Amino acid sequence: MPATPSPPPFPVPRPETPPVLLRRRRPPAFWAVAAVATAAFCVQLDSFALNAALPAARAALRGSGDAAPWVVGGYLLAAGALMPVAGRLGDLCGQRRVLAAGLALFAAASMLCALAPSLPLLVAARVLQGTGGALIMPAGLALLTRVHPPGEGRRAIGRALGVAGLATAGGPFVGGALAEWVSWRAVFWLSVPLCAAAALCAHRAPDPRDPQVGRPPLDLLGAVTVTGAPACLAYWLQRPAAWGWAVAAAALGALFVRAERRCPAPLVDLALFRNRRYVALTAAGAVANAATVALLYAVPLLLQQGRGWPAVGAGAALLAPAAALAAGGPLAGRVPPVAAVPVMAGCLSAAAVALWAAGCGAGAVALVMTVTVAAAALGVAGGLALTGSQSVVRRERAGEAAGVTKAVLTATAGAGLALAPAVAPEADRAGGLAGLHSPLALAAASCLAAAVVAGLLGRETRR
After folding, report:
1. What is the phi/psi pair of residue 9, to 5°?
2. What is the structure's pLDDT at 435?
3. pLDDT at residue 432 is higher than 50
4. What's the CA gap between 394 and 389, in Å, rounded?
5. Ranges of H-type helices in 334-436
6. Letter string b/e over residues 131-145, b meaning 16 or more CB atoms within 10 A of that residue's CB
7. Cα 385 to Cα 405: distance, rounded to the nearest angstrom
8. How far apart, in whole angstroms, are the C-alpha atoms of residue 77 and residue 397?
9. What pLDDT score was predicted for residue 10?
């Protein structure tokens, strides 16, 4: 028998392989969320920080009282009017490409705003900035819907909205601090690096557009009419005596409906408005957005003018509502589509009660507590308007739906500004902000009415 070889007295060393440094790669969808969250944070921070810095800008540029409101109104006009077109462009040309173009335009316009030597030029730069914002938001929301599997997109949108909510609530404090300690121009310079960071993230995000699929041409007549109608309407609201602009808005709106009915590839499919869940979420979210803007403007004025708080103290008092508002987006992303409308109605009801209590002249601690509750409810409601409306439409037209929803929300931001006039100290000393003349009470009544309508629509959709 052959001898069995004995084992070696020591283990035979194996050839060593060079160590491999394993880098943990981020999934492509992560970069899409990072891009949209950073872009939304930038847009919201610029919008809400500017309002606190606007008096300093007007004093430095020595502009007229008639031109100053258009620094905000011009931005809202451009953004609200162009968002339906921008949303459809994302569906046709690719959401990532439109998002990158919007970021580049927003950054360039921010630099022009920071360098503006006069108030009219600042208004013109703000209109250009609103155009960039119109490209950013619908494309970003649709990008998150398209790059995630069905059911996961709404959670991604919720996370991005949570980041943007921090800028919404903290913007007035940041704008006031920059205007007082640095310069009002710093508000615009702050947007440039944020846009650059968002653009880098967008470059690494996936492109959901399929180049092999043919794309229909853009509906030019629909684009012109859907842009012109809200523009004429907004101009008429600034000058109610000029009825010609109201007539022009109605005529362009009628022409838009007729054009979309006849176009084989319409800019906005009118069947979208037969989707009751989409209509309920968009309309209720518009009311929630207006109430949020009214709250963020009325409460600091109430604390400063009615109670004599300094601006820094009033800003610090909004930290708790800011955190509650920011948490609303992620919470909204966890709501399943079938429960979106009932949850929306419940949030608006809770917000109505809290807003009414906040406007009844309670003490400072009670005021902050009720405002925090209202901010939490409105944060979830505002998030549901975007996450829920994206989940009840076809994925291939997600940009179109996002454009219409964001256009409605942007338009109601102007209504929220009208709901929040300056709060006189005498009104607070006379017994608080009671009655429908109070901006908080008006917001409460609007939320309650919207909750009833959303509840009724939600009941019909479940049948």
Report:
1. -65, -15
2. 36
3. no
4. 10
5. 340-358, 364-391, 398-419, 425-429
6. bbbbbbbbbbbbbbb
7. 8
8. 24
9. 44
